[in-house]
Batch of 2 targets.
Target 1
Amino acid sequence: MSLITFLSVLLILNFGSSYGVIPTLYNTGVDNSHVSFPLGTTDIHWTISPTGPPAPITNIRPAWLPNTTVSSWISPGQGGQPTGEYLYTTTFDLTGYIVDAVSIDYRITMDDHVTEDFATSAPGIYLNGFVIPGTFFPASGAFNWTSWSPTLTLESNITSGESRFVNGVNTLNVYIDNGGAGPTGFRFEQISAITPVPEPSTYLILTGAMVALLVLARKKGLKNHQ
Ligand SMILES: [Ca+2]
């Protein structure tokens, strides 16, 4: 193995930890170990507003996509709920990450559909107060509570330049509209994330590589002179 190949392998290994999930971003209806709660348990990472006690709770309706071990439905209550808008909120911490390079793939499903923040009238999912373009799923959309959305991506500067991660606590808001006073609920699942973190060992390896290449170049230069 040449020196350059060896150093390349070292660098790749070092950045290998950049892929995974954001550990503080929780799916709906799971405990602190990211495992689904039993039905009827109160969620501890997501809130719903407005809501009735105790809420939000893990829930399931016969027509809904079945819960799994990694995510569950949450809702403001069992059975039919008042018609109107429900706000689902969670926070996650990106302290220490290179936030402009973070990218999070996720999917959602809901009853009835994603709607707008009535205060701004901009429909869609909100990251830190700004709507993310392309995340408005009206009632006539291609999916609902029986299937997952397409894979969606959370990242800084998505299209408009307004939706941005912050190096600290980030807030995700999803507005769900319930029609006809029937059941309502929401489910979120993080699929994967690119999470580059500057590690001290990265700089050591890069410095080492530069020194090694300089030494190599000097040796070659000396050889050529001999
Ligand atoms: Ca409904």
Target 2
Amino acid sequence: MAANLAIIMVTILFLVIHHQTTPTTAATNVVKTEVFRSPEMVMEPGLVSNKDYFNVEFPRGHIGLKSFNAELVDERGNLLPLHEVYLHHWVLNRYFARENRSGADDLSIVRNSGICGNRLTQYFGVGAETRRTSTYIPHPYAIQVGDPATIPEGYEEGWVLNVHAIDTRGADDKMGCTECRCNLYGFSEAGGGLHCCPDDGRCRLKQGFRGENKTIYLRYTVKYVDWDSSSIVPVDIYILDVTDVWTKADQSKGIRATHYCKVEYGVESCGVGVEKDGCVDTKSVTFSFPVGGEVVYGVGHQHAGGVGTTLYDQGGRTICSSKPIYGEGNEAGNEAGFIVGMSTCYPTPAAPVKILAGETLTLVSNYSSVESHTGVMALFYLLLAHSQPKPLPTLASKFMMVPEFVWPIVLLGVVVIVVVVAWKGIIGNSEGYETIP
Ligand SMILES: *[C@@H]1O[C@H](CO)[C@@H](O)[C@H](O)[C@H]1NC(C)=O
Ligand SMILES: *[C@@H]1O[C@H](CO)[C@@H](O)[C@H](O)[C@H]1NC(C)=O
Ligand SMILES: *[C@@H]1O[C@H](CO)[C@@H](O)[C@H](O)[C@H]1NC(C)=O
């Protein structure tokens, strides 16, 4: 009798608790998706567009970013293939802004956590590989933004999107245009790089080529969750660059380490007489990483010609190796000759990857040197967690979490059972417990 009652009570308690806790945990971690379009870019054959769009549309409030994907589309939303309009890069930066007394915008970029001192301040940013590169941050991690406690009084958080696109329709040398080779853009200097394909620059076209103007957009998709510090673990963004010119810190003199990132470099052709297999240009950089943490996500960034980039720890073990995926067809997302994706790293809790504060890391980038390349890059984007995910609530702590208003319901249930059992006891006295109505 008493045992029966106890079982019924526990069952009711369990049902009530289960009903109360399951939906609330799920609701806070619902991933929301919003799709936006950048301001329009009017392209014509050979034209470069490299503009900053301040205050672009973006989810507002205290949120955790889960992913950011982007691609070029035309006015009807059709995907543009890279061999028509090449997406050199897009970069999303965060800032705080306010209108100052003279009515001008007082604006400061909120840099990611490092490590370049001069550039690469973005939260997200890739290039041609955008369509097939996962940017998803797994549960329980997210990039925390919009926290009112970190936005200075009187300021507002905003986002600036930089899009660098090159219209290569009718180009004399399509690949050369995408590599920003100076001679193709009317500059007399050798080599290439971003300085030779500035906004409104023009790449050389085949003689007599004519093509219509085209209005294009960067369509971007942001996934996020409402921030909840009890269930989300924040991650910090670090961008490493193989061209980083690093000067060591000198504690005795109070000098901090500096990182000057050149971002671009050139690859020389291995020349005639070298076997094709041997034509690999290897560039590497070794530096001390300033903070410790657990790797949640890693991805490299390379341009066409790239054959892989790897980050090694102090012991020479691989932290993350990211390889390019080359297209094989003609359609958007699979353009032959272009890097259409980069492989990513998602260490699992079973095989965690940690970086220690002050650990010496080495970043290696390989490019094919069968042909020369200009304006290439090798960046590594890392997301690190500095705290451990909180353990899942145990049954005991679930009991503690039962909201106060639930207890009267539980009590009512107990009262009902007691009354029913007592009533059954009274009317069933003569027939005993075996009564079947
Ligand atoms: C578009 O075409 C017109 C001529 O039809 C031209 O004047 C204009 O400059 C073109 N380019 C852009 C980027 O608007
Ligand atoms: C307002 O901001 C502009 C641009 O940053 C700056 O040049 C100007 O000096 C500022 N004026 C005041 C009164 O702070
Ligand atoms: C780079 O190329 C060298 C030489 O071919 C090779 O030993 C190394 O494993 C490669 N590293 C990466 C990151 O691809």
